[in-house]
Each structure stands twice: as C-alpha cells, then as structure tokens.
Design goal:
The structure is a homodimer. By secondary structure, chain A is of the alpha/beta class. In chain A, helix 7 links the parallel strand 10 and strand 11. In chain A, helix 1 crosses helix 6. Chains A and B meet through strand 1, strand 2, strand 3, strand 4 and helix 2 of A and strand 1, strand 2, strand 3, strand 4 and helix 2 of B.
Chain lengths: ~300, ~300
C-alpha cells in the first residue's frame, strides 16, 4: 500500500528483512470504499524462554532472531551477565521455545524457584531486581552531536523495513555516531531492544559509545533495559513517562523523545548534547515516515 | 504544547481527566532549539493484582481506576466470570496493590498454584487458557453503519484527553452506535481495555450491541480480550497482526484497522458493515489528531 522508499546509503550489520516470507502474511479484506484487496500484515507468535530447566516467560514476537531475543531478555533482566556463562542456546521451531543453558546453575533459578513457591508470577520480582540493579548505576560519559541525531532519524526512516511494508511494528536501532548498525523490528518494542542486547552480548560489542534509537515510548521498562545495556543515550520518536524520566536522571541517561523532523525534547542528561546543527536547515518529516500504524 | 481541542458534544459516562493532578507530572527540559521549558509527561506506576491470597500480575499503569483494572484483568483472563463472585475489591495506594476477594475459592487459584509449583511464571498458561476459552466462541450478530465509525472517530479525536495534554498514552473507548460512552486511557493499551471490562462488569453492561474503539494495534491479545468481553466489533487507528486477524475470523469478530480520516481496512467480519456514508464527504484528519506520541 505504501510506496517503496529510496535506498539508503547505510551499511547495516543487520537490517530489517521486509521480503522474508515468514514475517508477514497476505490477507484479504476490504477498504473504506468497499473494494476488495490483499493486505500484508505482521506475523505474531508465542516464544517461551527457558533458563536451563526453568520456564521464564512467554513473549509474543514476530519470530526472527529467537536466540538473540532469549539472550537479550535474560541479560536485560539481570539473569545473565556475560556470554561466557552460556553453554548453549537452542531454539525449537515446532515447540516455539528457546532454551538458554548455562555452564553452572545461576542465582536466579534458585531465587525464582523460591519466589515461585511462595507467591506467584516471578516477573514482578524480576522487575524489582532490575530496578535494584540499575538504581546505583551511573552511565558512562559520552557526547552526542545534534547533527548525528538528525542523520540517524533520516537514515532510519528511509531504510526499507517491515514497518514500511506492513505497519504495526516497532523498531529499535543500535547506532554509533551518525551510523545505524543493527536495526531490529518486533511486534513488542521490548522484544526489539532485547534482540539488540542479545546481538551485542553475542558479539562482545562495547556499549559506551553507542546510541539506542527506538520508535517506542520512553517508559520505565525501556529506560531500565537501556541502563542494563550500559548505553548512555536513548532516542525515540515517541513520548515519555514520568517514571522513565525519573530513572534516566537517576542513572544519568540522556533521554531524547518526540524526535520527528527538526523537533525533539531532551528531558534528562542534556549536558551530553552538542548543538552543531541548525534545526532550521532540517526538513520536516514526510508524512510517509510518521509511523502511524505501529502504536 | 498542543492547542486546546474544541469541546465535543458528547455525554460520556466516563471521560478522560487531563486536569487530574496525579496523572501527569511537569518536568523541565530543553527542546531542539536549546530553549528550556516545562513539559507534561504521563505518570506510570506499578500495580500488583491479587486474587484472594494469590499474586497474579504486576501491571505498569497510569494509576486511575485500579479496581476496574483489576476486575477487568481477571475477567479478561477468564479468572472471574461474573461480578456476583466478587465479595470485595480493595486498593491500597501505599502498597500499590489491589486485592480482589471472591465468595469462594476460584478454580484458578488451584490451577495457578499447581502450575506455579511445576514450572514458573503463570502468565504463559493463562494466555493458553484464554485462547482455549475463546476458541469455540462465536460473537453475536450485530451491524455497524460506516457513518457511526466516522462519527465515533471524529468525537473521540476531539475529546480533551491525557493524550492531547501529554502524549505517550493509549485510549480505549466503549461505544454504542455513534456515541462514545466510556473513554479510558493508560500507558498500556491492554490496561485501558481491562479498565473498560471492569467498568462493564461492575455495571452489568450488555456487550452485544457495543463497539470497542482503541488507539492500539490489533494484536492477538487485544482480539482475545474483546472476544472475552463478547463485543462483536473492534475498531482501531492502528494496524493488524496476522494472529489478531486469524483469531477474529475464528470467533467472527468484525475487525477494522488503520481507521484515520476517511480511510479504514476491514479484515474480518465485513458482513456486519453497512455502508451508509460516502467516504469522499469525510474530511481527512487534522495533523493534531494523528496521535504520534503514543507508540
């Protein structure tokens, strides 16, 4: 339904794959004029993540990179701290499960086991653990030129993506200076960021000089995950929650939101910003890039 | 930051309350020109839901209507089927918990207990249960005039809301014909629909002649919740997932997405649509209503 975007001049390490046949489905329907048509819609599948023998969570995901998703989820929850702890990651397509095995039993299995025996779903506690882990953290010094922010937005918007092919999906992009490196998409914005974390962990990528860009809102969860990943700068097209801002200030994360065309707002860590670009010279966004289908 | 919308001619039973002092927070920051300013951002708080003595889930919520959220969540998960089972609902502001007490122990506590003892977080199972409950359901016959859809979109867009005041929030609206009745907002789109379910349950509202409108995507979760609520028509500004479409067809839910201005797409249950309106007469949306901050 949307016009093909122009080819970007970006060498991604991982780019979206809108042509992958198992990530979208063609379905029939009608439009507002009553005309029959075929529409591409995004796939959505359950994926259950195990840490050794313990079932941790079932995520609803588009289904690409299940191993990165599992590793990144466990890392961002503080259940794994390093890839060297991991002895195997096995994905079973049919059972829709991914099992992460560690060389020795982790603290978390015992902790989860105890928790689960006493009072129910573990994820509430896990969130508290994550918060405790992050609370004392101070993210590393870094700087970000405003020209990079504008360049990143432009390049990411022009990248062929599942969003442009079918809508209803979030994107998260790991960037260095003005270069997008790894662009993950998923039906859940938390999954897209977890896949980035899993990729970074698997490739021993250093986080201190990176920028994380997301199409999703800057909630407490997104901020906690970014802080767990030790990335000092988080940028979004979308808005903020108060708790997201509060945690960002606590950990000294630079938080930039509502980044569209020449506009943005920075509500935390603005000392990292270097204004080397005149916003008046930046064009407003083309309506095609307004990502209206992914809420 | 945004202009005040014009007053709508709608008598809501519950309308958003953008003036409520505890739902937004004023925070300082800078914009793209480097100018300091104060920005309204949405609150986000944890709320832990108990069913009797069993901890069920911790939701991240804006914090209004915690009792409706808890009741609606438990109803939509199939853990409660009727308000007559409920003996008390108590919200503790300080502990950020809400406890729903039932007149007798429910099946779910036993089931959850067993599940939790064996292999971890209960929510995976709960989702499967919900799917099993919905799988055999056929939603009631109904009809929807396309003029109602356009009227609803227009009225909802013009309603003063937290979205218009601060962005970064989802809305779900229970409607009858062309009248919006109950408009809930929340940082999580699933919370907004659960609050509607809790209100319906508490007020014995019949679902068969209602339309549910949401700003969020039409995922499997949204479709399952709508089917649990027995509402035959679900409308969204946003896009679809393939699983959402598939479940809708299975339960005969009318699923309308990408509804913006004169445009929409219907991918399930189009037999319920009565085209009584010429789309050419419907104006395109004003950019102010494009909900760009709530992804």
């Amino acid at each position: 339904m949307r016009k093909k975007p122009q080819k970007p001049r970006v060498n991604y390490l991982i780019a979206p794959n809108p042509q992958a046949p198992d990530l979208t489905r063609q379905v029939e329907g009608i439009d507002h004029t009553g005309r029959r048509g075929t529409y591409a819609v995004i796939e959505e599948r359950p994926l259950t993540i195990f840490l050794n023998a313990t079932e941790i969570v079932t995520a609803m995901t588009i289904g690409d990179y299940p191993e990165f998703l599992a590793l990144g989820f466990l890392f961002n929850q503080g259940m794994l701290s390093d890839v060297s702890e991991v002895s195997a990651v096995s994905f079973d397509h049919e059972l829709e499960t991914v099992v992460v095995r560690t060389t020795s039993q982790t603290d978390y299995e015992e902790k989860l086991g105890k928790r689960i025996r006493t009072s129910g779903c573990a994820l509430g506690t896990v969130f508290e653990d994550m918060f405790d882990l992050v609370a004392t953290r101070r993210l590393p010094a870094a700087s970000v030129r405003t020209s990079w922010l504008y360049e990143l937005s432009r390049k990411i918007n022009q990248t062929p993506s599942l969003y442009l092919a079918a809508g209803a999906i979030h994107g998260t992009v790991l960037c260095h200076r003005d270069s997008p490196l790894v662009y993950m998409e998923d039906v859940g914005r938390h999954n897209a960021v977890d896949k980035i974390a899993g990729w970074m962990m698997s490739n021993n990528v250093k986080p201190e000089d990176k920028i994380l860009y997301t199409t999703g809102r800057l909630t407490s969860e997104m901020v906690l995950k970014t802080a767990m990943m030790n990335i000092p700068i988080l940028v979004s097209r979308s808005g903020f929650t108060a708790w997201g801002v509060q945690i960002s200030r606590q950990v000294n994360l630079t938080l930039i939101g509502r980044m569209r065309g020449r506009r943005y707002i920075c509500l935390s860590g603005q000392d990292r910003l270097i204004a080397d670009s005149d916003p008046k010279g930046v064009p407003e966004e083309h309506s095609r890039h307004q990502r209206r289908g992914s809420r």
